[in-house]
Amino acid sequence: MKRITRILSILTVVLILFTLAACGQSKKEAPGQGAAPAQEQAGQAKKVKVGLLTGVAGLGDKSFNDLAYEGAKKAEKDLSIQLKVVEPPDLASTEGLLRDLAKAGNDLVIGVGFDMKDPMDKVAAEFPNTKFAIVDATVDKPNVASLVFKEHEGSFLVGALAGMMTKTNKIGAIPAMDIPFLNRFTRAYEQGAKYVNPKVQVIVQPIGSDFSAFNDPAKAKSIALAMYNQGVDIIYHAAGGSGAGLFEAAKEAKKYAIGCNSDQDYMAEGLILTSMMKRVDVAVYNTIKKVVDGSFSGGVNVFGVANDGIGVSEMKYTRDLIGAEKIKKLDELKKGIIDGSIKVIDVLETQK
Prior knowledge:
This protein is α/β, with parallel strands linked by helices. It folds into two domains: 47-149 and 281-303, Response regulator (Rossmann fold, 3-Layer(aba) Sandwich); 151-277 and 318-350, Response regulator (Rossmann fold, 3-Layer(aba) Sandwich), CATH 3.40.50.2300. It is built from 13 helices and twelve strands. It has helices at 2-33, 35-46, 64-79, 94-103, 117-126, 151-165, 180-196, 217-229, 243-253, 280-293, 319-322, 324-339, 347-350, and strands at 49-53, 82-86, 108-112, 131-135, 144-149, 170-175, 201-204, 234-238, 256-261, 272-278, 299-303, 310-312. The strands form two sheets. The chain has a six-stranded parallel β-sheet with strand order 2-1-3-4-5-11, sandwiched between helices. Strands 7-6-8-9-10-12 form a six-stranded mixed β-sheet, with helices on both faces. The N and C termini lie far apart (107 Å). 46% of the residues are buried. Mean pLDDT is 89; it is low at 1-44.
């Protein structure tokens, strides 16, 4: 009897030990169920943080700021980054805002606009372990990717189209300011127009003398209406959000306009012949992707006609108006730019 009792006691102990072992294993495996949350937490810890500082004109410009934002939002969706977007109230605030984004622990801080060159140069030096990118300027720092575009190539192409389409041999251009960066657009536009039509006259009228000129559609509209009244029948802008004023003028005067940076053809259907496309969205997205996959490096990244960083819109509303012959001519000019047989004026290069 005692032997049976001892056997039962041993079996009971074994059963208890087995139960404890099983419970211990289930606790390890409940985090084995919890392995997913743990991995998610690890994934969250590794989530890349990106800070985007727009240009002073801010979002809603239907131009380069909106393009940068679209590229960053696509990265947020596709690459699961954590995105912070800031709009500066003025140029003077950009240095402090760049610094704030770096201090906040962002892995990548992006500044949109050539006017941020000096602020970024200073802030990037203060945060050597933070990655930076700047649109439309070159900052010579090992932790800065400079995203620059050959706007002159696209401006040449839309100028050529204007030269082929004008009936009065008078075309116009409205830059935000009279500065080398924007003269790069207007000079190449003039070159393209005269390349196909030596008789054409090009009138250029800047909007203002400070960065508020990028967000003054009323002034742009006034200038455009005056040009149209002088016999100009096609106007190109290089003025960010102010371009909306040109399009309003085109509607009133029933004359043609050309968009800039993004596909703005829809803003006055049938009256915007085409838009010079500057793929800031692609440049921003690809830069973020490089941070995510670990291939980011500082240096200059150039986008032009040859790598589809610059081009013209598909002319959705005007292809029939323009005609196959002129579109074919644009394709030939594009090939000439790529193979070097056409040398497009670059104001920034000539001033070095």
